Amino acid sequence: MREEVVCRASPSLALVKYWGKQSTRKNLPATPSLAVTLGGIYTRTRVKTAPSDSIRLNEQPAELDRFSHLFDTLRRVAGRDVGFQVETENNFPSSAGLASSSSGFAALTVACARILELDLSAAQLSALARTGSASAARSLFGGFTLLPAGGHRAEQLYGPEYWPELRILIALVSHRAKAVSSRDAMEATRETSPYYRAWLRNAGELLGPALRALEKRDIEALGTVARLSYSRMHAALLASSPPVLYWLPATVAVIRECAHLRAEGIGAWETLDAGPQVKILCLDSDVEVIRERLGALDPQLQLIVAPVGEGPVCE
Ligand code: DP6
C-alpha cells in the first residue's frame, strides 16, 4: 500500500443531461447523458491511509455520509481494513452548479484505488465513481463521454483531441453555494413534478441527434440539442412542488445575450446545470467577441474559458 497519493480530475459538463435516478440505492441514472470533460479546471485530491476516515473539502471538514459507501466498497475490493484521510480542493467555485461532484468523486475514486494499489480499468473506476455521483462516472475519461440510461459506467466516445477548436465559456454569475443540492432537486422532480415522465421520455429522444451532431462536429446542431436538454430539465424542475428555480436575474441576462449573439451569426449555445452558472458552447474563434459582449453586460462577471479536457491524472 502507498502512503500518500495526489490525483486530479476535471468536471464533466453534460450537453444531454442526466436528471433523475432509475435506482436511488444503486445510483443509476434514469436518462442517458452525453458530456464533455472540461480542461483547466479540476479537483485535486490528496489521500493518506489513516486509522479512520476523514474528509476536508476546501479546508473545511465535510460530512462522511456521502462517501462511506464508496470507501467501504474500495476496502472490500482491496480486502484491506484501512481508513482514508482525504484533503480535496477545487480550483473553481464548489457547489455552485459547476459539476464539482463529478470531478470530486472521480479524483477521490482514482486516488483511493491507487493508494490501495488496486489494478482497475478506467471502466471499473467509472462504475465505482458512479456510486458516489453518477456524473463522476463520466469524469473518469477525457474528451466526450456517454453514460447510458441505467448504465453502470460511462464510456469515452472521442478523446480530447477530437475537437481542438471547441470551447466552453463559463459565466460565473454567482459565487454562493446553491440552496438545493442536485441530488435533492432530482428526487423532488421525480416525486413531485407532473412533467417528470415526459422529461424521461424526451431525454432519450435527444440523444440520437446529439450523437449525430457530435459525429459531424456540427456545433450548431449540438448546441441546439444542448439548449433543449437543459431547458426541458429546468422546466421539469420548475414544475416540482415546491418549485425549484436555480436561475438568477444574471443567469437570464446571459441566456438572452447568447440569443442575441446567435441572431447576429455568432455561435454561442448556452447550457445550465443545477445552479445559476451559464456554460456557453462555442468555437475558439468566437471566444473574444462573446467575452466582450458578456463583459459589456456586466463588467464584474467572471468568465472561465475551458477547452476539451483530459481524464484524471495522478501526480
Ligand atoms: C444537472 O451527478 O451531481 O449536472 O448522481 O446524485 O450525485 P448524483 O447527481 P449529479 O447530478 C448531475 C446533474 C447535472 C446533469 C449532468 O451532469 O448530467
Label this structure with key terms.
single chain; 315 residues; alpha+beta; Ribosomal Protein S5, domain 2; Alpha-Beta Plaits; six-stranded mixed beta sheet; 16 strands; 39% helix; binds ligand DP6
Concise synopsis of the structure shown:
The protein is α+β, with helices and mostly antiparallel strands. It has 9 helices and 16 strands.
User: H/E element string?
Assistant: EEEEEEEEHEHHHEEEHHHHEEHEE
CATH class of the largest domain: Alpha Beta
Which CATH architecture of the largest domain would you pick?
2-Layer Sandwich
Beta-strand residue fraction: 15-25%
Calculate the mean pLDDT score and round it: 95
- In total, the number of strands is 16
What sort of overall outline do the alpha carbons produce when their principal axes are compared? Answer: globular
Sheet with most strands: 6 strands, mixed
Bound molecules: ligand DP6
CATH topology of the largest domain: Ribosomal Protein S5, domain 2
The radius of gyration over CA amounts to 19 Å
Number of domains: 2
Number of continuous helical runs:
9
Distance linking N and C termini: 16 Å
Give, in spatial order, the strands making up the sheet with the most strands. Answer: 8-7-9-6-1-16
Instruction: Give the helix/strand class.
Output: alpha+beta
**Poorly predicted parts:** none
What proportion of the residues is helical, as a percent range? 25-40%
Describe it:
By secondary structure, the chain is of the alpha+beta class. It has two domains: 4-159, Ribosomal Protein S5, domain 2 (2-Layer Sandwich); 166-307, GHMP kinase, C-terminal domain (Alpha-Beta Plaits, 2-Layer Sandwich), CATH 3.30.70.890. The protein contains nine helices and 16 strands. The protein has a six-stranded mixed beta sheet with strand order 8-7-9-6-1-16, with helices on one face. A four-stranded antiparallel beta sheet has the order 2-5-10-11. A four-stranded antiparallel beta sheet has the order 13-14-12-15. Helix 1 (65-78) packs antiparallel against helix 3 (122-132), helix 2 (100-115) packs across helix 3 and helix 6 (196-215) runs antiparallel to helix 7 (219-238). It is globular. Ligand DP6 binds at residues 14, 17-19, 27, 33, 99, 101-102, 133-135, 182-183, 273-274.
